[in-house]
Amino acid sequence: MAAEPLLDTDAAPTTSEKAAEKLEVRDYFNSTGFERWNRIYSDSDDVNKVQRNIRIGHQKTVDQVLAWLQEEGDLAGRSFCDAGCGVGSLSLPLAGLGAGSISASDLSDAMVQEAGRRAAAAGIDPARLTFHTSDLESLTGRYDTVICLDVFIHYPQAAAEEMVRHLAGLAERRLIVSFAPYTPLLALLKGIGQLFPGPSKTTRAYTLREDGIVAAAAAAGFQPLRRSLNQAPFYFSRLIAFERA
Description:
By secondary structure, this protein is of the alpha/beta class. The chain has helices at residues 15-29, 32-40, 49-71, 91-96, 109-121, 157-168, 184-193, 210-219, and strands spanning 6-7, 79-83, 101-106, 129-133, 143-148, 171-179, 205-206, 222-232, 235-244.
């Protein structure tokens, strides 16, 4: 995550700026961004050292979530929302563990199509794992557990907190989110990240203050259950599992 140029946590874009930024993120992940991140979240050898480390870090986060879920027991009777599913890095193994039903979505239609292709190749029952294109703000429904991994890097602090409250409103029991935490180290890496060369490689990225994320979840009736900090070079992700209070 830190391979993106990190921006100040308190930056608050206007409504028009937010709309423009969402369009920029969507277009990026439907074009050059899709090509780049599809390689990162695969077994391809066509990645550089930074991208390989991001792959390792992201997989640590996914593996931690799956371990937490398995410790809670049988997943067969539970429904899941994978908000910002990308190419299915979480949804596919979650289906493989026997999750009752999974609704997976992403802002990028290219990502959704690739996730569906991977699910079909893995022989996963489409009745148990469905994919659709949507931004986080438009998600509706009720689920036992809502999970949103490595997506809030595209949201400044206030917008991320608003999104935590929205996603919590969809969750019956559990809410699990990850984000790039604001730390002095990442503040330093903010400057370093902006030195990476190359056109169309990055979108705006934000570090977030953990106390604000926790407070937003508390306002929606959720309290922290577990935390972890997953990292690899150029990847830093605070993972928090919340439970309904």
